[in-house]
Design brief:
Layout (H helix, E strand, L loop, with lengths): L3 E10 L7 H18 L6 E7 L2 E10 L5 E9 H4 L8 H10 L7 E5 L2 E10 L4 H14 L20 E8 L2 E2 L3 E2 L2 E2 L3 E3 L8 E3 L6 H7 L7 H18 L3 E2 L3 H10 L4 E6 L9 H12 L2 E4 L5 E9 L6 H26 L15 E3 L3 E2 H19 L3 H10 L7 H5 L6 H9 L4 H9 L14 H20 L13 H14 L6 H4 L5 H17 L4 H8 L6 H14 L5 H17 L16 H23 L2 H9 L2 H10 L7 H19 L8
Antiparallel strand pairs: 1-3, 1-7, 2-3, 4-6, 5-6, 7-8, 9-10, 11-12, 13-15, 14-16, 15-16, 17-18
Length: 676
C-alpha cells in the first residue's frame, strides 16, 4: 500500500460573495497547508478551487501517517536532582514519576548555562485521516469573514449556509461532521444544468466529473481564462476590441460556474453621453464588458457572461438589452441636467458638505488646496491664477447628479463639465487629473497644473489628518494616507519636479515629513534598490524627492566601483572615531599641525576633489561626483595606514579629528556611505 494519497476537501455552499471569493479560496488553501505543516504531515503540493457554490482544495501525495516526533522535557538541575552522596532527590524522583520512567532512564543535558535532567521520548505519528477534520475546522474558523451568518435553526455560523461536504482521501471518505453536515463522496454540479449529486470514486475524478457531468469549471484560473477568451472572440466578431478590466473579470468569474458569452447592443443616441458614464453604468450595475473601435471610441455594443447555456440565447440577449436601457437613460438624464448648471455654481454648496469634522467643509479644503496649488504652480512654472481656479472647481462635480450616482466618476465628470462651461483646457485637464494616481501603478497627471493640484489635494489631506492625531497605525489607514503619500512622491520623482517638501510643510510637521521618507524607503525597495543604499541617502534627510532619487541612483552606481568598499569602510571607521571622541574640535583642520606627509597629501587631494564636485552637487550629478570621491581611496588608505588619529599630543589629536570630520562632511553632502 502506498504511503501517500491525494486528499480532496470541498465545502458546498449557497452562492458566496463574489468580491470575497478569491480571498476566501486563498485563505482556505493556506489554512489547510498551515494545518498540515503544523501537524508535520508531509505533502507534495496544494491546489485551490473556487466557484460561487464551493471552496475546495486538492492536496497531492499526502502522507498517510503523521511523522514521528521527538519530544524533550527538561527537569530539575543536576544540583537539585542529586544530593552529595549521588542519591536522587525528591525533585528528581517527582520528575521521573511524571514522565512514567525511573530516574535511571533520564538523560542529562549540559549547556554553558548549566546542566539538567531531561526526558526524551519518541511520539509516534497518528493516522492522517484522524487529524484532517480538525485541520479543516481550524482553517474554516480562520477565514477572513467580516460578518458570519446563521441559517435555519442551526447553531453554526459561516459566510453562507453549507449544504454538502466532501473529504476524500484517495478512494476513502474521511468521516467527519462540519456545520452539522456529514462528510461523503458526493459533490454537486451546476444548480440548473446538473443539480443532482455526482459520486466521486477517487480524488482524481473531481475536476473531470464536474467539468464533464456537472457543467462546472471548478478551477478559478481556468474559468477566468475561458471568460477572457470568450469575451475577446465575441468582440472580434463585432469588429471591435473588448476592454477587459481585471477587477471586473475576476468578479464575473466569481459569479458563474459555467460561462456562456452573450452579446447585445444599445441605441446609438446614448453615445452623446460621456463614454465614462455609459461604461460605469454597464460595468457597475450589469457587469458588462464594453467594446471600443480601433481608435478607442466606445461602440454601442456590450458583452455579458451568463451562467446558463440557454436553448434560446436571443431571449437572454433581449433581456439584457432591455435591462441596460434604463441604466443608460439615467446616465443621459444626469448628463443633461448637470449641464444646465455651470460648475462654479456649486462652489457655495461645498460649504454644506463636511470633509472631516475637525478639518471643515469641502469649501474649506478647496480654499486650502487652492493656496497650496498656487505655491507649487509657482515652483514648477505653471500659471498661479489658473491653479487657484482649478482648485476651487476641483470638488464641484461632487455636487452633481452624475457623480452622486457614479462616485467613481469624480474628477472625470468635473473635466467634462469644465469644458462644457468653457473653462480653459489647463483647468479642465487639471480637474480630471487631480485624483491620479488612483491606485498602485496607475498613470500620473500629464499636465503641470494637474500635477500641482494632485500633489496639493493629497498633501492637504495628509497634513490635516496628521494634525488631528489620526495618523495610520499598524495596518489601519482609513484615510488612505500611505497611498496618497506614494502618489505625491511618484508625481514629484517620475515627473521630475523640483519641489522641496519642507518648504511646503510647516516646521511643526516633522512627523509628516518622516512619514513620507518612510514611504520612500518602501518605494525604492520595490524597485530593487538595496536597503543600505536607501538608508545611506535618507539618513541625510534631503528634502527634495527628486534630489533623493538622484542620490540613490548615484549611490547604486558608486557601489559598483572597485573603490566603493574601501571608502565605505574608511567612512565607517571615521564615523566610529568621531562618535567616541570626547573632545570638541573645530570645523576645519589647521595645516600647521600636520606632522605626516600623508596628511598633506590627503588634504591636497581633498581640496582638489572638493572643487570638482561642488558644481556637480549643485546640479544633482551625484554619480559623477561620487566617481571623483572614489579617487580618494588610495590616499585615504595611506593616511590610515601611517597616521595615528588619536595622537598623545592633544593639539595634534584635535586637529586630526577636525580633519576626519572634513572628510566625512564631504561625503555627507551626498550620502552617509558608512551605512553601506
Amino acid at each position: 500500500m502506498s504511503d501517500t494519497r491525494d486528499l480532496l476537501i470541498e465545502i458546498g455552499t449557497e452562492e458566496l460573495p463574489p468580491k470575497a471569493l478569491p480571498n476566501l479560496s486563498k485563505a482556505f488553501a493556506e489554512g489547510i497547508a498551515k494545518g498540515l505543516q503544523k501537524q508535520e504531515i508531509a505533502y507534495e503540493s496544494i491546489s485551490a478551487f473556487a466557484t460561487p457554490r464551493r471552496l475546495a482544495v486538492i492536496i497531492k501525495a499526502v502522507a498517510r501517517i503523521q511523522a514521528n516526533r521527538e519530544t524533550e522535557r527538561r527537569g530539575p538541575s543536576l544540583k537539585a536532582a542529586f544530593d552529595a552522596q549521588g542519591e536522587a532527590s525528591k525533585a528528581a524522583l517527582g520528575f521521573a514519576r511524571s514522565c512514567g520512567v525511573n530516574v535511571s532512564e533520564l538523560e542529562k543535558l549540559e549547556t554553558k548555562k548549566g546542566a539538567w535532567l531531561i526526558y526524551k521520548q519518541t511520539q509516534h505519528g497518528q493516522a492522517t485521516a484522524s487529524l484532517i477534520p480538525t485541520i479543516i475546522e481550524n482553517s474554516l474558523a480562520a477565514l477572513p469573514i467580516p460578518k458570519r451568518m446563521r441559517w435555519a435553526d442551526l447553531p453554526y455560523e459561516f459566510v453562507r449556509p453549507v449544504h454538502w461536504l466532501v473529504i476524500l482521501f484517495g478512494v476513502d471518505v474521511i468521516e467527519a461532521e462540519i456545520f452539522g453536515i456529514p462528510s461523503g463522496c458526493e459533490t454537486r454540479g451546476h444548480r440548473f444544468h446538473h443539480p443532482q449529486d455526482i459520486v466521486l470514486n477517487d480524488t482524481n475524478d473531481y475536476v473531470s466529473s464536474l467539468e464533464n457531468q456537472g457543467f462546472v469549471i471548478p478551477s478559478f484560473t481556468k474559468r477566468r481564462d475561458m471568460i477572457r477568451k470568450l469575451v475577446t472572440e465575441a468582440a472580434n466578431a463585432l469588429e471591435g476590441k473588448a476592454v477587459i478590466d481585471d477587477d471586473l473579470l475576476n468578479e464575473v468569474t466569481c459569479l458563474v460556474e459555467y460561462p456562456v458569452v452573450i452579446t447585445g447592443s444599445f441605441d446609438k443616441q446614448f453615445l452623446q453621453v460621456p463614454a465614462e458614464a455609459l461604461i460605469a453604468a454597464m460595468k457597475g450595475h450589469q457587469k458588462y464588458f464594453h467594446i471600443v473601435d480601433s481608435e478607442g471610441k466606445l461602440l454601442p455594443s456590450f458583452i455579458t457572461i451568463s451562467n446558463i447555456k440557454s436553448q434560446q440565447p436571443e431571449v437572454i440577449r433581449a433581456g439584457n438589452e432591455r435591462v441596460i436601457r434604463p441604466r443608460l437613460s439615467d446616465a443621459a438624464f444626469f448628463w443633461q441636467q448637470d449641464c444646465t448648471n455651470s460648475l462654479d455654481s456649486h462652489i457655495e454648496a461645498l460649504k454644506t458638505v463636511i470633509f472631516q469634522k475637525q478639518l471643515g467643509s469641502l469649501y474649506d479644503k478647496s480654499e486650502r488646496v487652492a493656496q497650496l496649488t498656487a505655491t507649487i504652480a509657482k515652483q514648477i512654472g505653471a500659471d498661479e491664477l489658473q491653479a487657484v481656479r482649478a482648485a476651487m472647481l476641483s470638488k464641484c462635480d461632487l455636487m452633481t447628479g452624475m457623480v452622486a450616482e457614479f462616485p467613481e466618476l469624480q474628477g472625470i465628470m468635473g473635466e467634462y463639465y469644465a469644458r462644457n462651461n468653457q473653462e480653459t483646457e489647463a483647468v479642465a485637464a487639471a480637474i480630471g487629473e487631480q485624483y491620479l494616481p488612483r491606485f498602485a501603478g496607475d498613470v500620473l497627471p500629464k499636465t503641470s497644473l494637474g500635477q500641482a493640484l494632485s500633489i496639493s489635494d493629497k498633501l492637504d489631506t495628509l497634513v490635516g489628518i496628521f494634525g488631528i492625531g489620526k495618523a495610520p497605525t499598524g495596518d489601519k489607514d482609513p484615510f488612505g494616507l500611505r497611498r496618497a503619500t506614494i502618489g505625491i512622491l511618484r508625481i514629484i520623482i517620475e515627473c521630475k519636479l523640483e519641489i522641496d517638501l519642507q518648504e511646503l510643510l510647516k516646521p511643526s510637521q516633522t512627523k509628516v515629513f518622516d512619514f513620507m521618507l518612510e514611504r520612500l524607503r518602501g518605494y525604492y525597495q520595490e524597485q530593487g534598490f538595496a536597503l543600505e543604499t536607501i538608508d545611506a541617502v535618507l539618513t541625510c534627510r534631503p528634502t527634495s524627492p527628486l534630489d533623493i532619487d538622484k542620490r540613490i541612483r548615484g549611490i547604486a552606481a558608486f557601489r559598483k566601483l572597485p573603490e566603493a568598499e574601501s571608502l565605505a569602510s574608511a567612512n565607517k571607521r571615521i564615523h566610529n572615531i568621531l562618535k567616541k571622541a570626547k573632545e570638541k574640535y573645530p570645523s576645519e583642520p589647521d595645516q600647521t599641525y600636520f606632522t605626516h606627509i600623508e596628511e598633506r597629501h590627503l588634504y591636497d587631494k581633498l581640496e582638489t576633489v572638493k572643487q570638482k564636485i561642488a558644481p556637480l552637487i549643485k546640479t544633482g550629478d551625484y554619480e559623477t561626483a561620487l566617481k571623483h570621491l572614489a579617487s580618494l581611496r588610495e590616499t585615504t588608505d595611506k593616511f590610515f595606514d601611517n597616521v595615528m588619529v588619536m595622537d598623545k599630543d592633544q593639539t595634534v589629536r584635535i586637529n586630526r579629528l577636525a580633519f576626519l570630520q572634513q572628510i566625512r562632511n564631504l561625503f555627507l553632502q551626498i550620502a552617509d556611505i558608512s551605512k553601506l
